[in-house]
Amino acid sequence: MNSELKWYIVLTKPRQEKRALEHLQQQGGNAFLPLFQREHVRQGKRVLCREALFPGYLFLKSASENPLLSKVRSTLGARGLLYFGSQPAVVSALLVDDLRRRAACNETDALYKKGQKLALNSGPFRHYEAIFQEYDGLERAVILLSLLGQQSELIVELSELALD
After folding, report:
1. What is the CATH number of the domain that holds 67?
2. CATH of the domain at 146
3. pLDDT class of 13 with cuts at 50, 70, 90
4. How far is CA 70 from CA 24, 75, 77, 85, in A?
């Protein structure tokens, strides 16, 4: 009996990667869904959404004799394992570890947090104090700036901001 743990590729139903991940984890599976942030325009506003890096796929770490592998097909959100011929597809642990590291960096590398006080170091509002609201893409931020007794929402380049 081979009890070596391998990373298998799970096919998911369209736009149900997160649902399949949740249900595989509820069944005791060690599943991983790499996500990335993507900017969308919704109702005229730019918003950041977390989406699957590989739409329709996620990874499941398991031993080949684990009964969970045979249950993948009936798991909510999943269609089954990806096969090449008669063998389920296996991915290198090094690749999955690298994807996990990169995903963790994207989540924790945010320089500014909502509500944090900042100073503008260039542009027309240089030396003004602002409050960080959210990121607007990869190179811009939405800030609150007090002007004429009112707080105004502005979008500025990240290079114009500095910690107060």
Report:
1. 3.30.70.940
2. 2.30.30.30
3. very high
4. 12, 10, 15, 17
